[in-house]
Design brief:
By secondary structure, the protein is α/β, with parallel strands linked by helices. 34% of the residues lie in helices and 24% in strands. It has 3 domains: 114 residues, 3-Layer(aba) Sandwich (D-Maltodextrin-Binding Protein, domain 2); 82 residues, Periplasmic binding protein-like II (D-Maltodextrin-Binding Protein, domain 2); 75 residues, Porphobilinogen deaminase, C-terminal domain (Double Stranded RNA Binding Domain, 2-Layer Sandwich). It has 10 helices and 13 strands. The termini are far apart. It is an enzyme of class 2 (transferase). Belongs to the HMBS family. This is Hydroxymethylbilane synthase. Its EC number is 2.5.1.61.
Amino acid sequence: MDKVIRIGTRESQLALWQAHQVNDLLTAQGYRTELVPIKSEGDIDLVTPLYEIGVQGIFTKSLDLALLNNRIDIAVHSFKDVPTQLPKQIVHAAILKRGPVKDLLVYKTSTDFLEQPGYIANIATSSVRRKAQWLRRYPQHQLHNLRGNVNTRLQKLAGENWDGAIFAVAGLERINIRPANSIDLDWMLPAPAQGAVVAVCREDDTFCREACAAFNDEETALATHIEREFLRTLMGGCTTPISAYAYIQNNTIHFSGELCSLDGTGFFSVSREVPAAQAHHLGQEAAEDIMAQGGAEIVAQIRNVK
């Protein structure tokens, strides 16, 4: 195979790990590849809170432009960063088998503060979803903005007078930097498509589409489709406190979804179990259930804030 498949990636350690997964899957089939690091807007401005930037696509836009301008042939993303509406002429080429989906808390000294009534802990995260869920559980705590790649965020946590910070399990474990002083947040529902990696390419690039089709994981593709449909139906994006998780067990889809107000005081949830063969519109139906419960009011409030 003479054609070299150019794989676009962000420059962070985690992004490069993801790109290498796709690279290895392609080379295992005999394809020739080349990694092309590209800096994203989200990597350049590490100060402004994501919700102020208008985060929809901030980590994917530069790669998408490189793809459309034919500088690369494939772009690799954390699937949770990808807008539910792809740019024209770009399609999903493959969704890799999903990794860990949970969030975790990295704490400074101990987790005793979680059980101390009245204690005002200082917790850091850049995620509006994590902030809302945390405040729902710990309304007295103070939340702080924390930007940057996972290494940068861990360094900032060490230097600040904070009690802890929230990360994705997958982000730390994939590059082997999960600290011992961390605990899984089993009660926190993840972002739609968290833990999944997606490769995208140009719609008319049949060569790359066929190359990637061999490692598309159908179970992950179905689960993340449901989660992202839930997000899209609620008109959400990365700056909206929407959580969703779907998994398949014994040919049954188990789905949980949540919508929080920004301060955590408003909350709606839905859970469904349906045969996998009948689950294609499960995300939309679950989102409509949330809206009917009263979630439409929270969505309207969030839009007004933006």
